[in-house]
Amino acid sequence: VRGDTAIETTGTPGAPSATTTIDGKQLPAPEPKFGGVIGETTQKSKPWWAPRIVPPKKAPNVLLIMTDDSGFAVPSTYGGVIPTPNMDRIAKNGLRYTQVYSTALCSPTRAALITGRNHHSAGFGVVAEQATGFPGYNSLIGRDKATIGRVLRDNGYATSWFGKDHNTPTFEASAIGPFERWPTGMGFEYFYGFVGGDANQWQPNLFRNTTQIYPFEGKPDWNLVTAMANEAIDWMNQAHQIDPSKPFFCYYVPGATHAPHHPTKEWVEKIQKMHLFDDGWNKLRERIFANQKRLGIIPQDAQLSPWPKEILKEWDACSAEEKKLFIRQVETFAAFAAYNDHEIGRVIQAVEDMGELDNTLIIYINGDNGTSAEGGLYGTPNEVAFFNGVTVPVEAQMKWYDVWGTAQTYNHMSAHWAWAFDTPFSWFKQIASHLGGVRQGMCISWPAGIKDRGGVRNQFTHVIDVVPTILEVTGIAAPELVDGIKQAPIEGTSFAYTFDQASAEAPSRHTTQYFEMFGDHSIYHEGWLLSTKVTRPPWEAFGAVNPDPVNNVAWELYHLEEDFSQVNDVAAKHPDKVAELKKLFLSEARKYNVLPLDASVAPRIVAPRPNITAGRNEFVYTRPMVGLPQGDSPFLLNSSYTITAEIDVPAAGAEGMILTSGGRFAGYGFYLLKGKPVFLWNLIDLERVKWEGPEALAPGKHTLEFDFKYDGLGVGTLAFNNLSGLGRAGTGTLKVDGKEVQTIKMPKTLPMILQWDESFDIGSDTLTGVNDADYQPPFALTATLEKLTIKVDRPMLSPQDVKQLEQSQAAAVDGAR
Ligand SMILES: Cc1cc(=O)oc2cc(OS(=O)(=O)O)ccc12
196, 411, 450, 472: least surrounded by Cβ within 10 Å? Predict the structure, then answer.
């Protein structure tokens, strides 16, 4: 942005203390020419050190904070009822923005945030777990789009990343990398967090840089929300203490408030005492809406979007048991949000304590998308159920009422609350066409540079605008070349122009923005928003898919400039505007790799990706190994498979884990229990199917086999917009030394995914176990594992199957017309 900034130098050129800024056009900066003298001996020579590269003198520290799955009306700062005093503090000390947009989903928003490019441009049209082989969707941030971490690092910043990643491809997440797209490979010198979409906060799949660590073992009160704050505080203090002149960039992105909602007990109790939700979600919306007007963060004439009676029920229509459960769910969520803000407050306080608050640009963004409706209509004790298309009835959920939010649950709340937490807008996370999905809050403080303390700004801003803003504020140029690769232009617009009080009312400079997620889409242009009509709430992601989300859509038009909350559809009054904006959407879509539009969710979860198992159907292991993530391990769902373990049992007998994948909330395990062989399928913690040998294995060598014959057609049906091949029945047989010991038919199997934050482990079990009733991890195998073989036999469609699938697809398309 400011490649014309004059180079600043300090010290005597060639001296060890000399520093320089760089023009920043090429990163890393070209090696300077040796400036000393080389004679035959040192006496006849003069040494010369290249000046140390430093950022411009005025460049502040940058603390970039973004919470997870938190809609516009969650924090008190935006009229919410959940106390977020630390976001309030940033707002009072700086600016509160009211028209900040995300992309409607997690990885996409994050890719946009750290690259300054639209999510499709950055390869993240969808989340990492749903990547497909198109440039806009492959989950690969291009090397022509260096992240802000990389740019700041090469300009002399200390850089770090704490919390959630979700921008590393799932197929590059194993211990053999490649690591180019891990945080440390993308310019963040230090990473402490988890790689995937969400994590158990009590026992996360946690990494320090690229090494998995288990600091919570034996510490039941440990929680990642606190641990990552401690780590960030330590890192900032260390960086500052080692070199006070070197600014830091800290990217602080907690897993809160994404499911599982895992606050500490202390915070749950604090929130429960406040009785914030006793009168239900309809009253909650009214209260929040009144707060928002009182705070002046929505216009006085803004309307509250109507309650969507067709899909969500009124609070008064809930039974007593439902009310009891739903209140428990939302109090746990609220406790998680308040707890998270509290820990963020400690990080901010640490900046103040080191005397750097004035000189730190703190950007605190509430949520990477709207509030999540991925709990479905009733919420769930186990989010892994949601991603397998399973709804848990209220009565069944009551079993977890007392332990809600503890390590016994992977919990999420009812979608009714999610709608309320996006007040005054309609819809929620995943919905790119409606503001409930994409409108966030953002507060910024930087006392040295922003004087209008407590100001409110209404300009249109989007997460892609953060990178160019940081560059403008720091005086660092967007590079033209990084590692020799020509950089694509930054697509965001700096909003530093809004900082001064004099420009409080300046017209928005970001004038056009497309939105797209799962085929649902919209386009903003100069105060107007053309939106597709929502056809599918997030919990209906597992049925047939709209095959033509470009043309098979209905349009709504909103004049946001006078209709803040997107309530009045004026499409019928302005057909020309509709036509103009439709055209504009498609041209923007072509420009940013948004095509081909794809309305599917479930089919993309099970789509094969180029991981280390691609094209293989036999896997052999001869040594214990833990930590292979789901996206890189042999995938057994919707297939037949045979697992064979050759073991040697010592004289005293043996126990322990042979092979496991997943954990308490879904997975399988093949183990010796008091010497007896067991194979167990944990079906999302609702049901367990267990095969068990009748007697303990005698000392000596044995061959154990688990053979599974799958009855369905497999993932091949997905190509015909048909999920019928998934999750079908199958028959498992456990054999010992070639002899069948038990055969059980499973009437259904898991269709989509195991617990994603738990790994494929051989010889022991990391994190949670698949069956608490049988064992406690790590449950190391005390027999010698000589060889473990997994053979996968994927079903193939016969010509007859293909014909039938084609026919039913044609019938479905006709039906939709
Ligand atoms: C496991 C998984 C699969 C998937 O398809 O999408 C996800 C979305 C998730 O939320 S987000 O990270 O907020 O987008 C979390 C986990 C998943």
Answer: 472
Measured over the CA atoms of residue 180, residue 184, residue 188 and residue 193, the dihedral's sign is positive
Contacts made by residues 554-562, CB under 8 angstroms, sequence distance 24+: 555/530, 555/531, 555/582, 556/433, 556/530, 556/531, 556/532, 557/528, 557/529, 557/530, 557/531, 557/581, 558/528, 558/529, 558/530, 558/531, 559/527, 559/528, 560/524, 560/527, 560/528, 560/529, 561/527, 561/528
For residue 69, the ligand 1 atom closest to its alpha carbon is: 13
Query: pLDDT tens-digit profile of 700-726?
Result: 999 999 999 999 999 999 999 899 999
Residues near 340 by beta carbon (within 8 Å), at least 6 away in sequence: 67, 225, 254, 256, 257
Q: What is the pLDDT of residue 542?
A: 84
Average pLDDT over residues 220-243: 98
Give the span between the Cα atoms of 77 and 436, in whole angstroms: 17
- The pLDDT of residue 4 is 54
Supply the angle between the helices 320-353 and 85-93 in degrees, to the nearest 10.
50
- Measure the CA angle with vertex 259, ends 257 and 262; round to 5°: 75
Residue 129 beta carbon below 6 angstroms from any ligand 1 atom: yes
List of residues 6+ apart from 277 with CB closer than 8 A: 284, 327, 330, 331, 334, 417
Local confidence band at 349 (pLDDT 50, 70, 90 cut-offs): very high
Ligand 1 centroid to Cα of residue 672, in Å, is: 33
The letter for the amino acid at 802 is: V
Nearest CA-CA partner of 226 in 215, 237, 218, 236? 215
| Ligand 1 atom nearest residue 753's Cα | 1
Which residue type, as a one-letter code, is found at position 421?
A: F
If we measure between CA atoms, which residue out of 797, 788, 806, 744 comes closest to residue 638?
797
Backbone angles phi, psi at 77, to 5 degrees: -60, -25
Computed over every residue of the chain, the mean pLDDT equals 97
- Residue identifier of the C-alpha nearest atom 8 of ligand 1: 197
Q: Is the CB of 197 under 6 A from ligand 1?
A: yes
Q: Over the range 247-273, which residues count as b (16 or more CB within 10 Å of their CB) and which as e?
A: bbbbbbbbbbbbbbbbbbeebbebbbe
Q: Hey, which of 69, 106, 430, 757 would you mutate to test ligand 1's pocket, going by the most ligand atoms within 8 Å of its Cβ? A: 106
For residue 70, report the distance from its CA to the centre of ligand 1, in Å. 15
| Gap between the Cα atoms of 113 and 376, Å rounded | 28
CB 758 within 8 A of CB 667: yes
The response to whether residue 130 sits with its C-beta less than 6 Å from ligand 1 reads yes
Around Cβ 310, how many Cβ atoms within 10 Å?
A: 5
- Phi first, then psi, for residue 612 (nearest 5°) are -70, -5
ipTM of the complex model: 0.96
CA distance 609 to 632: 9
CA–CA dist 296, 302 (Å, integer) = 11
Report the separation in Å between the CA atom of 127 and the middle of ligand 1, taken as the mean of its atom positions.
6
pLDDT per residue as tens digits for the range 31-78: 999 999 999 999 999 999 999 999 999 999 999 999 999 999 999 999
Q: Check pocket membership of 277 for ligand 1, CB cut-off 6 A.
A: no
- pTM for the full predicted model: 0.97
| Structural element, H or E, at residue 474 | helix 466-474
CA angle 561, 463, 301 (to 5 degrees): 25
CA separation for the pair 493, 485 (Å, rounded): 23
Residues 508 and 506: their CA atoms lie apart, in Å, by 6
